[in-house]
Design goal:
The termini are far apart. The relative contact order is 0.07. It is built from no helices and 29 strands. Strands 4-3-2-1-5 form a 5-stranded antiparallel sheet, with no helix packed on it. The protein has a 4-stranded antiparallel sheet with strand order 8-9-10-11, with no helix packed on it. The protein has a 4-stranded antiparallel sheet with strand order 12-13-14-15, with no helix packed on it. Strand 14 and strand 15 form a beta hairpin.
Length: 346
């Protein structure tokens, strides 16, 4: 057991006595550990501490360290090397050439690393001076979708031009897309889940949280056919794919769902009393689980993001929205034969 890798609060085993112990003090040269009460995880009352140094640490085995509660900070990259806040190289990197710091999670720096001309995701844990290799990255485009305390959602995508000639010499040029989303922790990486399409970074990623589940809405303007070919259209409208994340105590990433949302979205909320359906509002429209209501007066709903009631009557539907202060506004849709739908906001 190395003292340098053992934290205050670590649980260890005394190889001589077989006792489980807990570390209560640490400095650069020694540890103090007490026999541990298995029921409480605390030192046994009245027990005697054992001093552990580099001369006797072989007599102990570490069971677990406490989970890190802080993110590293102050790091940068220069000429492929990881640099600390004082401008010094952090550690020996061997063949690892760091191209970018992707982000931070508790206890680790998430890195994009080039190894033998391949780009990969790595983590580096400063407290242990340890690199961990995760996954190969197919492309040069990397974007953090969301940074939580203990997990980083990272998207990576690439483009590849393919040329094909027919018997007449006519050349067909297609641009292929490949992309994935990864959930990156300090010690492991979950994924990958295919990315729906290239991310349009000109638009914000939207989110809505319901209890411990947060749904991220990823903006796209390109569309991909079943063969992975990018459909090039200047008229392609903005649309969103959705990623659901469990942000509870376990921090487990749940996966990806799909949803078409149409034009640019200004707000997203969940209608809790209607089966937890998503409600999207744009400048001049509302999309309620696929039901589209359009009117220039929708802009008057700004701040009233929560759908709390739907009332359907003969030839008229009323949608009641509330704001965070529980004030309400109503959107009424009247259906007529001679002039279409009449939408009012009051």
């Amino acid at each position: 057991m190395r003292i340098s890798e053992t934290k205050k609060g670590a649980k260890i085993v005394n190889k001589v006595t077989g006792e489980k112990m807990i570390v209560t003090y640490k400095n650069d040269e020694k540890l103090l550990a007490f026999p541990m009460d298995i029921a409480t995880g605390e030192p046994v009352e009245g027990s005697k501490a054992i001093e552990i140094s580099s001369e006797n640490d072989i007599c102990f085995r570490r069971l677990s360290n406490p989970d890190p509660t802080e993110k590293p900070s102050g790091y940068s990259v220069k000429d492929g090397m990881l640099i600390d806040a004082n401008g010094k190289e952090v550690t020996q990197q061997g063949e690892l050439y760091i191209t970018d710091i992707v982000g931070y999670v508790n206890g680790a720096i998430i890195l994009q690393v080039k190894v033998h001309n391949a780009s990969k995701l790595y983590s580096y844990m400063p407290d242990y001076d340890r690199f961990r290799e995760f996954v190969y990255l197919p492309g040069d485009n990397t974007k953090v979708l969301k940074e939580y305390d203990n997990v980083l959602l990272v998207a990576n995508w690439s483009y590849q031009e393919m040329r094909k000639s027919d018997d007449s010499g006519n050349e067909d040029v297609n641009m292929y897309f490949e992309g994935n989303v990864y959930a990156v922790y300090a010690k492991h990486c979950i994924g990958s889940t295919p990315l729906e399409a290239p991310i349009n970074t000109q638009y914000d990623i939207l989110s809505v949280k319901d209890d411990t589940v947060e749904t991220l809405y990823i903006p796209h303007t390109s569309k991909i056919d079943e063969n992975g070919v990018i459909i090039d259209s200047e008229l392609a409208e903005l649309w969103y794919s959705a990623i659901c994340v469990d942000v509870g105590s376990s921090g487990i990433w749940e996966g990806v769902s799909r949803m078409f949302n149409g034009r640019e979205i200004l707000s997203v909320s969940i209608a809790h009393n209607m089966g937890d359906i998503p409600v999207f509002r744009g400048l001049d429209f509302i999309d309620i689980n696929g039901i589209r209501i359009e009117s220039k007066d929708i802009k008057n709903l700004d701040g009233y993001n929560y759908l709390v009631d739907i009332t359907k009557d003969h030839y008229m539907d009323t949608y009641t929205f509330a704001n965070a202060e529980y004030q309400i506004k109503k959107v009424t849709v009247s259906y007529t034969r001679d002039r279409g739908n009449i939408v009012t906001v009051s």
